[in-house]
Amino acid sequence: MFKNYLILSILLFSLGLIGAVSRRNIIIIYMSIELMLNAVSIMLVSYSSFYNTNTGVVLSIMVTAIAAAEAALFMALFVTLYRKKKSLDTSLFNSLKDTNATK
Amino acid sequence: MLQSNLLFYILFWPLLSAIILSVLNLFIKKELRSQILFDFLSVAGVSFSAVISLYLAYQNYVFSFDFGYNIYTFLDLESLKIDFALKADALSLMMLSFVNPVGTAIFFYALAYMRDDRSSARFFIYFNLFIFFMNLLVLGANPFIMFLGWEGVGIMSYLLIGFYYDDFSNIKAANKAFILNRIGDFGFLSGIFLLAVFIGVDGYSFEALSESYYKIEPFYLNLIAILLFVGAMGKSAQIPLYVWLPDAMAGPTPVSALIHAATMVTAGVYMVARFSDLFSMVEEVGVFIAYIGAFSALLAALIATKTYDIKKILAYSTMSQLGYMFMAEGLGNYSYALFHVFTHSFFKATLFMGAGAIILALHHEQDIRKMGNLKDKMPALFYMMLVAALSISAIFPFSGFFSKDAIMLHLFSSGHYLIYFIALFTSFLTAFYMFRFIFYIFFSHKRDIEVKATSKLMLIPIGVLSFFTIIVGFLNTPELLGGDERFSLWLSLFDQRYFVSHLVEISLIVINTVFILLAIFLAYLRFYKLIRLEDEASTLSKLLSNAFYVDKIYNNLFTKPLHKLSCFADEKCDIGFIDKLINSLAFGYIKISKKFSVTQNGSLNLYMLVSLGGVSLMMIYILVVLL
User: Fold this and answer.
1) How high is the pLDDT of residue B537?
2) What ipTM does the predicted assembly reach?
3) pLDDT, tens digit, 9 for 90 and up, residues A32-53
């Protein structure tokens, strides 16, 4: 039973990772990141029930709280970025690119 | 003590003149200057010094007072204490008593000579500073102060040779003089360093040094003597460091008269005499010095017989006379050498100033082939120069006779006959080239040459010096002629004396005089009525008129290899190696950073992948290594 929780957590984390790396829409990337955070939360909770302690549960509540705060910041960021380029495609936000770089 | 203060003033007045002149020269415009004020400032310093020098020399001569004046302590180490101190004994005062008065005469002459020059103030600044340094050289109470003066006269000589700096050849001549003198200075400096190392503990003044020469091992004593003589070689233009002196004639004529004939070039002779107690301990080095002097004298006299530049003839003649002085010093008689320095300064200054007057009268013509028939046009100058020519040829009763004959007698009686014969032959050549000079300028080419009038201010100093040329010889009348060699007695140096019978003495004088008269007669036959120019057919005369190609040899032997070495260092070492290394470092960084800049392509996904990769690596590290 415990093993299945771990497999679910790893699958969720991998999905989030692939989404974060491969998608170009910033909102999707944000959602992928949240997915990874939740995968970690699931793992913490399952470990804490397996070892019969409360530490993991407390940590997962804190992760959720931080993710909520993050969400507020991200929303503000999305609005600002959208005002700049009228789009949320990451390939447009490349002003830090080295113009001399050999592609 | 009041009189000792006077030593300070000998130095002070010319320096003050130079300082005031340079300030005025900087701040007053050329048109607003008062000619009289500038003239006064130009000559005042040296005139005061001359008066003081003569007074002190008189005091020393009559009462045998030595003067000393300590200005301050320059350096105080445990093992070496150097005072900035002045000292005047008979030797110094003898030098001062001709340097400053002859200098004064030349200063007055220079007033007239440089009248129309646009930078005459600069000229007199240098000239006054020269006199200051020359006095410092002569008055220095230890080798260090002497060296300060020594370098000072060197730099002034450099500045004055290159006085007309808009002509590149003058600058070259000035550099040549300076660099060759540096070689000599290296010797001198090494010599006095060695003295400081070996016996500096016991005091560094000349007196203290002379009391402890015996403590040095003979090998090092020889070495020191040779090194010091190398210094004298450079300053006094002896083989092999003489080539700068003929080129030094590029400066204005008063410079040649004062620096390159009467005073600075005799500094080497003075220095050897100042170390006479050291040199009298190393006889082998003395003989070496005498041979160097002999060959320098001979070489210079030979070259002078084929030179056509009026000033270069006199330059070679100076070098030749300096050779005589070193012959006498090498064989141990310092006071005869110094007496020749003394008389030489009078007649050589006369000759140079006469030559300068002629050059000006002929609109800056220096080639004696283009002169001639000047006797009727400038009679006063002719007689003055004739007196000087007779004197340098050593005809009785002119001063050169007394000094040169004493040297010849000493050379003969010391038993070094080769040196004596070289000296005799040189004396023959001296008379020959001097009268070639006189006949060429004043008699040959019966044609009309336009002559500018010579100013009185120029003629008077020449006249005064030529008058002294006649009389100063009697200061050291030999015993044979009823004198008592007062001059040598006064100097009381470490002279070696040989006593010979009057018969030998008389026959030597007769032989010498016969040779000289013969030379004059030969010159008369050859040049008196000369009309056509000399031809340069034979190998010997070609060799002579090119000064034995010594300049070329030096060029090929030293200058060119050095130049090649510099080129090699520049092209191969600097540009080829060091620059390349540093450039490759810089360009290498750029190349490497190009490689890394691939990651900075602006794609957010890649950045994220890279940072996730980094985090993963960190995790693996923590898991594998730390746990």
Assistant:
1) 63
2) 0.76
3) 999 999 999 999 999 999 999 9
Is the pLDDT at B491 greater than 80? The verdict is yes
Q: Which residue of A has its CA nearest to B611?
A: A21
State whether residue B86 is helix, strand or coil.
strand
Strand partners, B75: B82
pLDDT of residue B582: 92
Domains of chain A: 2-89 (1.10.287.3510)
Q: What is the identity of the amino acid at B176?
A: K
Distance from CA of B612 to the nearest CA of A (A): 9
Q: Is B566 on the interface with A (CB under 8 A)?
A: no
pLDDT higher than threshold 80 for residue B449: no
The strand pair at B81-88 and B67-76 is best described as: antiparallel
Token pair, residue B224, equals 């020191």
Instruction: Identify the burial level of A66 via C-beta atoms within 10 angstroms of its C-beta, where 0-12 means exposed, 13-18 middle and 19 or more buried.
Output: exposed
Confidence (pLDDT) at B447:
67
Taking the C-alpha atoms of residue A40 and residue B318, their distance in angstroms, rounded to an integer, is 105
Q: Between these two residues, B531 and A26, which has the higher pLDDT value?
A: A26
DSSP characters over B283-298:
HHHHHHHHHHHHHHHH
Could you tell me which chain B residue has the CA closest to the CA of A23? B605
Q: Is B193 or A95 the better-scoring residue by pLDDT? A: B193
DSSP state of B75: E
Q: How many CB atoms lie within 10 A of CB B116?
A: 8
Residue with structure tokens 């050379």?
A: B411
* Distance (Å, whole) CA A80 – CA B598: 29
**pLDDT attached to residue B533:** 59
**Prior bond to B218 cis, omega within 30?**
no
Contacts of B159 (CB under 8 A, 6+ apart): B126, B174
**Coil, helix or strand at residue B67:** strand
Contact B246, B547 (CB under 8 A): yes
List of chain B residues whose C-beta atoms are within 8 Å of the C-beta of residue A33: none
Buried b (16+ CB within 10 A) or exposed e, B14-42: bbbbbebbbebbeeeeeeeeeeeebbebb
Going by C-beta distance under 8 Å and a sequence separation of 6 or more, which residues neighbour residue B548? B299, B302, B303
pLDDT tens digits for B153-179? 999 999 999 999 988 999 999 999 999
Return the closest-CA partner of residue B274 out of B369, B196, B205: B205
From B582's Cα to the closest Cα of chain A, the distance in A is 24
Encode pLDDT of B608-624 as tens digits: 888 889 999 999 999 99
- Residue numbers in B near A102 (CB within 8 A): 594, 597-598
Q: For residue B602, give the nearest of A24, A96, A100 by CB distance.
A: A96
